[in-house]
User: Which sequence fits this backbone?
């Protein structure tokens, strides 16, 4: 299909071809040159030229042919793979109480994981920058490295992020709006920084390492303190014009409905997020045990599982609303796959088969199966890995551009 | 940004470059080679080679330099433009009561417009095919041409269309589900047929000829008998996996809400579409004048304009729901632009400044202006022109591929 | 319990006692003087004096003691009963297409039933008066009587009736507001006329002849073209200050909800009345068979019974709303009994055990059984009988007052 | 109008007449015998006999004629009035944090007011009984009296009270359900106890001392921690069959709506009560100042008054819901008057002219003015006074019955 719109400034076709070649090699793990040509549509001759450049630059390496596999099929084909040691990338996920850090190498292998507590949920940009630098130093030290050994850092943060500008319009982790956080981090660190909304980090992690591998159009939905979404269209994370898109938690599902943390009414989040469930439970279950929201949620889910009626009412309405929200996504995106992603036991209710079934009754009915919904439970470290993956892509692009300049 | 996903089979980089060059020339009207290189990122040498091919194939032509403009700036640069007579394309919009047909040439100039009545709103695929063939013959004859002179036909139809398969899952114009309408038309006509959902046709028309020119990400929203949407992301019409996406009219805005034509509850359409307004009016305004829905709607809007309270109540609630629906689109897509597109006087209420203002209070608030909303009033002929534009793109791609094969 | 408020002018204690004595006799069928004293709290001596007056006036008569029953228990007690031939009363129910008339005697025995068609649903007060006079004449003639033989006429009419003033604020049967219909009828007829809202007529019928006998506080709910209610508190039909109370159909169950015939939003009626069901069906079942609303409703209920999904959706939401409405009545009135009264097959859904069960989950939960709900199917003739009963009470009061004056 | 239902056992007409005479004297303040006869419909001779009895019993006394007023109009008429010292009555309102006590004499004059703190909001029946006895002893002592000097105690308590049985089905003040609280108090105190729901106490206070004097049918609505209602129909407080009526706070205004303290969904209370407002504010105004709910409410109202947008949103939605609830009451009761009664500054929003105006648009529209709504601000002491008034009525009835027995 034709693209009628100018590519991003500074790119050219050669650079695009190189990036595609690296991406295809990374996605495949190991792949022969002829299969790269097939997969990218780049001519075999150009593939040969590009891979020579990449090998020279140390980004890619040849793999000795697997003799057993090749037996009897003529000359074994030499495969290529990404060269792991080429770069070390860090990924950080900033949560309300912790910073999770991961180090990966250039082929995505995890080198180390690290978690440090955060003194407070909302910080000044300067304090957050210090926290990130400190935690990165510790994480590097754990593997016998220094910050200077890292080629890039990806950071995932809740809130509204203008990715091209590296600007955080708003984040629950920051005590101020419109923070040029990427630039601040790049001043403090000797490496390029790739800043994104944390739900986009999850989408990136799913795309490169998880359920989204090889799926052209998919959505990632997360429910934790809030409701988030990452959109992958045509193989790319879609971020909207101002970085405010994908606000699944803030689509309105009721005129003049429940009050949301954002100050508006009827947002999906105001019915299904942690705070929404606890807000209801606070009225009917004043004695709910737990000093933290997590503990009280545990108690609420426990009560529901034991059949307590009002606890069930709380989770059932949330489930119905969530099903309706998912149906809205299907009706808008008709994606190939929806990945519901998160860490919590809330899955038992909100991510249940009943919810998926309810959702399916609310999507446009055609004689083709509705999109698959996969539940993928994981923790903060996978958010961090997504941030690292984002850095890996960015560093790849920079490396490829450098080749070009050479 | 890197693409991690395989391009569509059969395309290659050269072909992509050619298509980009044509698209850039078409978008620009007239453009010099050096500016094409700048705009596409293709090297000047390659641009020169490609444009030579395109000129030889008769798709593009040189324009004599405008001496007045060029005076005193050295050698006047030769510009290129698309060669209008290269191809004639037809576009058809199938409505409930009429078929609108437009003929355009290869640079998008309208050659003729034609409208024929449809005997009934729902037809068999065979009857609809006959109607389309007949109307196309008439439209061609009016300009002294024959069907054989046309290079391609674009058809926009309401309903759910699987574009790659050319399959109509469901349409109010067809008395049957899952119709391979594209193939049926290609059997009956000596030209390639490009079939799409009609809202996508409008999106295509806006992108090539209307408010969407040069905008990377935008949405087109239409309210008529139903509520439709076209999504343009990264310069491409987004159609979803099964062709069921962009169902703006069927996003749920109320749990257990008003009953929609689709049999489900709470769809936006069930609050704002023509039938939803008339359904309410039927109860409170049994004497509403008019033998057709259009006339009764006219009477309802008239009553509201004259201040009649219940008529106002009908339109005001619809307006609030529509504002909420638009806000949902912004919260999901954060588009650069929303084009509200249609023909009707309902604009006075549903597309009013008040609605846009309401919408703005319901989007995520950041320190960047919300997307612009442009109201674009037009008629069925523009839907047809969008279908023709879609054919123009398809024919271009085929022509470019043929160059390749040569 | 003490009454702190002045009784209605013109009544006195003696008159009240007489009325109570007649009411107790009528309710009992047959009753001995000593049991009347017991039941009313009036002293035996006063009961003896009052019953002597009533017998002299021909309103009451002695019944020969039933010797078998009395055997061996000393002197058989003489019982009293209301004297049937004392008065003949007519009751009329004005519907949209018919006038139903009943004649009863003074002990409530039905003498004849009569139904005449109405030329149009909305009439001038003069036309309606003529229709009533004509139909009354026919009904009397059928039993060999004349209008002059009737002692009183009760009329039940849809709409808002100010009973003390005999004023119809508004009625679907009248083409004008604020009609002094009682006075107009009394000018045309040689008898006192007792005009009431038709739901109150049903309440009166239930109280005197139906499920409400001997129940101090009960509600009657009707669903037909609209949703009506009669309230009996402390043995009296409660009519509100302006005759606008008991508007069960117009309690709001949704902010900015569905549009009601009354022009307001969210009324219960807009979810459960005939027109509300058909309004939804019109969109999803355009082919619903039936030239009249009744036939189309039949078809809708039939479709639902056969399991058709959207038809079920229509009736299920109506059922949930109706259950919620009933629960509201219980939460406000805590009545001893709710009688759901009507003629239609809609009972199968709206008046089902499931609805009653749903209702019970929505009332305040105490350790005492929720009010019983009885379904009482009947037709227009019982509405007419209620109107006649209302006339019977009124004529009794007039007769008792005349005793007083004597 | 005729009463078809047996009066309460043990009453008789003479007793009823005596009670009416006392009630009329009390309502009038001072009134001549002939006017009593006029007001009650009891014959002058009987009035003379009854008042002689009442004077002998010390319940009523003659008032010397006011000579100035009577001048020149023949013999001045002797008026009667209730004899204040005849009885001392106590009224108690049990709140969550305090017990308010009032002592009044037999003509309703306040003798003293007393407030004691409660150690906890929920108590065992035994603990509450002890608290009541202690506080009553203190209150009596403050006026130099002992508990034995009191003729009766009225108690108003939140929750569901079966008045005839003296049973508290449920109360937020008690840690157990189905408590025979009246009997328990009568065992502990040497006087009859009259137990009622606190909203009924307010209704009684309004009827005897407040805005409800001389109004036959009126409603009292209260909004504090919850939403309560007292219903006065035909001059009597209406309590329902099981004491569960008048639950204005628990009428459902939304299917599957907000969760109420009662565990059900969509109750009016869940939108307008204190806890509902604070529940919303907790999410958007986590920093709302105040250690008590009252202080946080103050802060919320302050924020709204200063124009803070989300605070306004909280109060505006509550106001709309409250207006809808009031409209429902009008549509059901068509009362002569609604008294909105309470203590709090919330009046500024929930009880505003805008709310009343909104309510009026949602009631059935007839050509007669909608019921007047009066705002009556007062504190816990008036609730206590209502309880005392209820005791006053009960003691009067007992005194009158004793006359009878004599």
Assistant:
């Amino acid at each position: 299909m034709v693209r009628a719109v100018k590519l991003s400034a500074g790119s050219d076709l050669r650079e695009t071809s190189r990036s595609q070649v690296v991406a295809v090699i990374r996605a495949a793990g190991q792949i022969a040159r002829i299969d790269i040509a097939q997969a990218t549509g780049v001519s075999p001759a150009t593939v040969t030229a590009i891979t020579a450049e990449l090998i020279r630059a140390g980004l890619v390496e040849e793999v000795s042919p697997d003799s057993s596999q090749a037996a009897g099929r003529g000359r074994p084909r030499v495969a290529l793979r990404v060269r792991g040691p080429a770069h070390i990338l860090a990924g950080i996920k900033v949560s309300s109480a912790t910073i999770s850090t991961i180090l990966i190498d250039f082929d995505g292998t995890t080198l180390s994981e690290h978690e440090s507590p955060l003194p407070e949920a909302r910080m000044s940009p300067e304090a957050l920058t210090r926290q990130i630098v400190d935690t990165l130093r510790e994480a590097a030290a754990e593997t016998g490295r220094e910050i200077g050994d890292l080629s890039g850092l990806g950071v995932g943060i809740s809130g509204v992020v203008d990715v091209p500008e590296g600007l955080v319009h708003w984040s629950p982790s920051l005590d101020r709006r419109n923070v040029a956080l990427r630039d601040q981090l790049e001043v403090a660190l000797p490496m390029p920084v790739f800043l994104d909304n944390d739900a986009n980090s999850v989408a990136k992690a799913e795309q490169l390492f998880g359920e989204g591998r090889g799926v052209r159009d998919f959505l990632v939905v997360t429910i934790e303190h809030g409701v988030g979404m990452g959109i992958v269209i045509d193989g790319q994370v879609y971020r909207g014009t101002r970085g405010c898109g994908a606000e699944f938690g803030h689509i309105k599902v009721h005129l003049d409905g429940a009050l949301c943390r954002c100050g508006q009414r009827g947002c999906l989040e105001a019915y299904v997020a942690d705070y929404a469930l606890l807000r209801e439970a606070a009225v009917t279950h004043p004695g709910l045990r737990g000093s933290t929201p997590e503990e009280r949620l545990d108690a609420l889910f426990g009560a529901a599982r034991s059949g307590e009626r009002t606890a069930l009412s709380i989770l059932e309405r949330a489930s119905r609303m969530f099903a309706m929200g998912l149906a809205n996504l299907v009706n808008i995106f008709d994606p190939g796959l929806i990945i519901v992603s998160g860490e919590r036991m809330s899955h038992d209710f909100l991510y249940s088969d009943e919810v998926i079934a309810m959702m399916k009754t609310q999507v446009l009915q055609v004689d083709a199966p509705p999109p698959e919904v996969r539940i993928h439970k994981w923790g903060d470290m996978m958010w961090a890995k997504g941030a690292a993956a984002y850095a890996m892509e960015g560093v790849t692009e920079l490396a490829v551009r450098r080749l070009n300049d050479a």
In short: Chain C has a mean pLDDT of 88.
